Amino acid sequence: MSTNRRAAILGKPVEHSLSPVLHGAAFRALGLEGWTYERVEMDGEGLPEFVRRLGPEWTGLSVTMPGKRAALEFADEVTPRAAAVGAANTLVRRETGWLADCTDVDGITEALRIAGGYSPDPDDEAIVLGAGGTAAAAVVGLAALGVRTVRLVVREPARATETVGAAKRAGLDVEVLRWADTDFGKIAAASAVLVNTVPPDAVRPHLAELAGIGRVLDVIYHPWPTALAEAVADRGGRLATGLDMLLHQAFGQAEYFTGRPAPREVMRDALREATGGILSLPIR
Length: 284
Prior knowledge:
By secondary structure, the protein is α/β, with parallel strands linked by helices. It has helices at residues 19-29, 47-52, 68-74, 80-85, 104-115, 133-145, 161-169, 184-189, 200-203, 207-210, 227-234, 242-258, 264-274; strands at 5-11, 35-41, 58-63, 77-78, 90-94, 97-101, 125-129, 149-154, 173-178, 193-196, 215-218, 238-241. It is globular, with a radius of gyration of 19 Å.
């Protein structure tokens, strides 16, 4: 197919994004000659005007921080899961305008299922460390997996309102705990799955307790391995990473942009090559 089409990732900073690796590989595998995917340095304030000016050759956009909330607010149509998260990482051109979705939810669920080996039980309880944008997607993803109770452990509970809102919109029972006052051993013993969104050094004092949970998603993948990853491996647990998340969220975006099934193996292999093969990145 030789029709020229364009897509891009918007963010600030964006120069180190691996999304062009994934989507470039997808376009080539699908024989989409003339299709390009680029990086565009863009903050949330500038996003609406930038998108309004795009020509008809633009098929869609990936959106990273700090523009995800602006993408949601700009869109003409919003998927239920993007509304639940309160942010969008995907904008797709439709005949009626721009559709906003949050394939980050797929990134969470499939990373946990496939790399993390997580088979949820309705009675499972989960822990999410941190309350930033990734945490909001994490709680919605956990709800999609069937989890019904989540403990959100944060430095300052007053700053967790957006993630708490996402959890409630997704139908979760949510408890917010102040980091300094948390008994990590107690909550770990009651939890089946952990999602960590905070820096490695913050988790280090609690590795012994948290690594015993057995099913862990650590969104950090550089530098690798993290202390949490090593502790989970030492305890015989299963670990998913932010690189698994990146891969699985990109599949849905590729299908939005091209209208065709994502070439998953090709995209996985391209990402593995670009990151030095540090992770196996299993897919189904």
